[in-house]
Amino acid sequence: MTPPFPRTVCACPGDVENCSRPGYLIPGDLIAIGELLRDQRGENPLQMFEASHGAVVADSSTGRRFRIATIVPKVRHGRCVFLDGHRRCTIHEAAPFACAFFDVHMGWVERQRRTAWGLRQVRDHEEYARIRDALANRDGGMKEPLAFAKASH
Predict the structure, then answer these.
(1) Which of 29, 63, 113, 119 has its CA 20 to 30 A from that of 43?
(2) Residues 100, 89: contact at Cβ < 8 Å?
(3) Do 90 and 22 form a contact (C-beta atoms < 8 A)?
(4) How far apart, in Å, do the first and last CA atoms of the chain sit?
(5) Helix (H) / strand (E) containing 75
(6) Which of 20-24, 108-112, 148-152 has the highest mean pLDDT?
């Protein structure tokens, strides 16, 4: 699903600094980034991602807290694997949701609105969960090899 708000622009040093700490992917990002990586590099895109503990959220009607685990780009040598030697994003046109739709100038309310929308996309998506569960966790450990999902046309 396409986000209901505009993509942000990485135009200042603060935004570029945030690129070192990549954000989470939503289900559509997996397909877009996967296709881009296969075209650019001919490699398995899943090698570039890992599972993250994600975010702790609360159900507004019950107050019950729970975690929504996510998929994120790997970080190597203190920066996102998709940054080149000049700190430029090599997948900018298909950047993950939490990279492409947030910036350092955004207010708290807007950040929360966008975060909630993104996490709703992740929460109940079975294929996303299957892929995430097969990835190595940030703290190590690979479960089982997994083929990358292709877009269905």
Answers:
(1) 119
(2) no
(3) no
(4) 15
(5) strand 75-76
(6) 108-112
